[in-house]
Amino acid sequence: MIARDDHRLNTARRIAAALTMVSVLALAACQTAPMGEFTEVDTAQVSEQNISSLTAVIQRNPNDPEAYNVRGSAYGRGGRHKEALRDFDRAIELRADYYQAYANRALIHRFLGDQPSALADYNRAIQLNASYDAAYIGRGNLYRKAGRVQEAFNDFQTAIQLDTTDPRAYHNRGLIYQSQGQHAFAIEDFSKAISLSPNSAEPYNGRGLSYLATNDEDNAFADFNTAIKLDGTIAESWANQALVYERQGERQKAAKSYGEAVRLDPNYAPAKEGLARVRAG
């Protein structure tokens, strides 16, 4: 046992040394879109600076599952999903109880559109480690997008009961509360997500919409403005800001914000419909 622990420690040190330019996190703990899973990382930087170093680690340790799991994470963050899938397959082949690799592979299956395989991998990760919060969050998000709302809620609830520090659990549970009109609970969850990830725009948008639903325009407007400051490329943020302007009778300002939302995403229906309304008025 001591020898195996020393081996893992040495491997971890080698991997850490290979990642001096960019920190590579496990996919199941990463975030992107609607508090989603992948952190925004420059693809070329991941490919050129990390992959070669991680490959060198693997060449020196071809039977080390941790090295494949970390390189798979780097591939995933760089959008190289098929290569990531191969690495996670290899990690699991080398260590059948590697629950983190199952959860990471599940995320890749999701991005490749293979939802049944994603669900199977999340289930396996949870079977191997019933306290692994990231797997519950990933599976919950899979359920939520499939319309299996109660199962999604249960998974987010479980992750929260496990004292997760992952903001996605609170954000996604907040989305469910919001969809059910339980805005006080939604606001509480979005606020918790913000406290865990203050630089993410998505929970500000979520909380702002619940504030707006309760006619708290001042707090809603403040949240939408914060979302825009954090990331001005999200069409939803501009459309939400425009909605407040529209409710306040500021049609020119509303049209400008709706127009920016349409520019960012020409297919975003709330922005197109809002722009048409204020122009018609």
Automatic annotation (TrEMBL):
A cellular component term, taken from the record's GO annotations: cell outer membrane
Protein's GO biological process: receptor-mediated virion attachment to host cell
The record's TPR repeats, renumbered to this chain, cover 65-98, 133-166, 167-200, 201-234, 235-268
Question: In its keyword annotation, does this UniProt entry include Secreted?
Answer: no
Signal peptide location in the record? Answer: 1-28
Q: Which UniProt keywords apply?
A: Repeat, Signal, TPR repeat
| Name the UniProt record assigns to this protein | Tetratricopeptide repeat protein
